[in-house]
Amino acid sequence: xxxxxxxxxxxxxxxxxxxxxxxxxxxxxxxxxxxxxxxxxxxxxxxxxxxxxxxxxxxxxxxxxxxxxxxxxxxxxxxxxxxxxxxxxxxxxxxxxxxxxxxxxxxxxxxxxxxxxxxxxxxxxxxxxxxxxxxxxxxxxxxxxxxxxxxxxxxxxxxxxxxxxxxxxxxxxxxxxxxxxxxxxxxxxxxxxxxxxxxxxxxxxxxxxxxxxxxxxxxxxxxxxxxxxxxxxxxxxxxxxxxxxxxxxxxxxxxxxxxxxxxxxxxxxxxxxxxxxxxxxxxxxxxxxxxxxxxxxxxxxxxxxxxxxxxxxxxxxxxxxxxxxxxxxxxxxxxxxxxxxxxxxxxxxxxxxxxxxxxxxxxxxxxxxxxxxxxxxxxxxxx
Length: 383
Ligand code: BGC
Prior knowledge:
By secondary structure, the protein is of the alpha/beta class. It contains 12 helices and 12 strands. Helix 11 (about 330-345) packs parallel to helix 12 (about 375-380). The radius of gyration is 19 Å and the shape is globular. The protein binds beta-D-glucopyranose.
């Protein structure tokens, strides 16, 4: 069964507009007036407890950061599990049956990105106390993955109020004035809880910052990194650009001075192909779109080339943290897309993590308990 999640939104027009703005901005043109992110006017001192890091010039990636990025190699997202409003709401749980597909000697991959919606499991005040049951649940999944030798990217996903988006069903609102400080308070707890984990655990500060987060992002990433560094002085931390982690926004990303960083981008180009029929894209994109003609390949390549050149400019490695084609696209075209994607990534030595394991983009059919061979082979079979 395909989990339905009509409540999720990725506004196609908004996405295009944001890309245009990012490109114009990168070219030196734009200044954009941004609405107040949370609808509130947080007191100027609300974030004083979370000062930013010094800005970074001349700091480049450590060997540990380079090794961590390389270890991601060819990975998978455990999507629609722990980042749904409550685990199970989108039809999947982070079950042992999924964990057992990865790592060890027989696993199809050795790298997992674990999206987590912390914000719906934390108190509605500025301290954002994370529910101990939920914290223990996430920790148990992380520990099982780590015990199988997997490299894990643990992130924060879908903090809707911080994005300025409507809440999903089963989410509770928090007062506007605590929306921003909660982001840092949650990172403090997550970082402290996992501070003893092996270096194979990476933190990713936020999935696809966009909307209200866009004007805040460089500052927020810097403050959040400082929070993390208090308990995890050298853990590798993943940071992507705003505009849904589009490579086109990398020129606007300002990184703190820290050698243990890795960059991430998401590449869903050609979007009208990969997201055809997706219920959370508004307006819904027509189905029946094929892949991959010369123009579509050029679009994919453009994002890869930008990611590579920006990665060199920054001096940090980059990986593609999400890509994929939704199940409404014709299967043969999805396979062609995956093969083309993989070839482009591998030609540039870019690690990637497919979105996702067992839901609407899924490589794996959870009802039949087996992989969809054509999709899995396109990514993990011989090239
Ligand atoms: C979002 C998912 C979405 C996927 C593809 C992810 O970043 O978290 O909800 O299905 O992108 O659009």
